[in-house]
Amino acid sequence: MTTISITTATTPPAEGGAIKVFENDGEQWVDARTLHGRLGISTQFCHWVERNFGDYVEGEDYIPQDIALAKNGDGTSCMQTPKDYCLSINMAKHLAMLAKTPEGKRIRNYLIKIEEAWNTPDMVIMRGYKALMVKADELTARNAELSGQLAEAAPKVEFYDAVADSDTAIDMQECAAILNKKGFGRNNLFDFLRKQKILNERNLPYREYQERGYFRVIEQTYKDGGGKTKIRFKVLAYQRGVDYIRRVIDQQTEPTLFDVKEYV
Known about the structure:
Elements: E1 21-24, E2 27-31, H1 32-38, H2 45-52, E3 62-66, E4 83-88, H3 89-99, H4 102-118, H5 121-164, E5 170-171, H6 172-179, H7 186-195, H8 207-211, E6 215-223, E7 229-237, H9 239-250
Helix pairs in contact: 3-4
């Protein structure tokens, strides 16, 4: 359980057994040293703790607290930091009853009244409203976080939209334009894919990547300077191939930029 910040200065005894009650995370607590000082008993605090705390659970019934002491000139404490404790209302009532003193009886009755007031419908509603406000603040912060994530993801969403709009395989020039990765124009993209062993030295995809449905290769005919018909191959990327290339590029922590002459 979270450590509770408490006021360590003792409050002058009040009539009717009044004792300061602290609130933390919707629960009520009592300062153990203050309670001990009001019970009208002669037992030293440390011995009182040893005798009475054994039947209670730390973190549920009581929470240890360090007391800030006066400092020496050099900033060190005058003595070792002693312990104080925050006690649950139930534990404080039981200890007050065990004291068997008039003061203990008055304190116990006072704590019973505090507990009854704490559980009135109005107080329950107030605590519920407070909890809702805390939850609303958490949701507002979470919403801001999600909005930031959506803004960050916007370029990827635009990328998928661009790919989805492409109904057929596209050439590597168009692929580079859709990817829109800095330093990855058509030629740099070819060089990168060769180094990743996705394309061979002729810039054609290995069979594995064709069988995955990432690429297709088409034949094109053209006339050379002598008028002879020649055949050349052109690689095209399908939608899933474009996405695969993007993922491969993104996995590189520092993509290398290549200075390559334009292909003709």
